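Table 4 source record.
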Amino acid sequence: MWIEVKDQQDIDKLMESYGFFQDSCLRDLYMSTREFVDDQRVMHFNNTLTASLLFQREFGSDAVLELKFEDIERLNFKPFEEKEHPVIYDATIRKQNGLIYWADSANWEIDDHDSIWISGKKLFWRFRPELMGNIKRLNDERV
């Protein structure tokens, strides 16, 4: 069951429930765009831009968390360099100017292009224990 984040109290509950993202990693990121082509080969642009972010962490009974952003405004993703350590030590969730932001650092500021961050009009979350481990939700095998 999805839990919607509407206000600061909801943000605080999410952050506390997932240990402020301490010692977690972003396992998966999936995005669905606004565009699609129907069976008549007509292109449409009226879907909602949505993303699912799946996190795993090394401790706690609720070690796998999924965030779902709807009506995405912006996504900033910068892959880690090979020599960098991709652990998230803390994170930020903030509501500002009608948008909800998640970023991979507690000291994050809006438009920081060195961080991984996303903003959208709506945010939902749920625990996904069945997705612990080296799961593959995307078939990336070449055929």
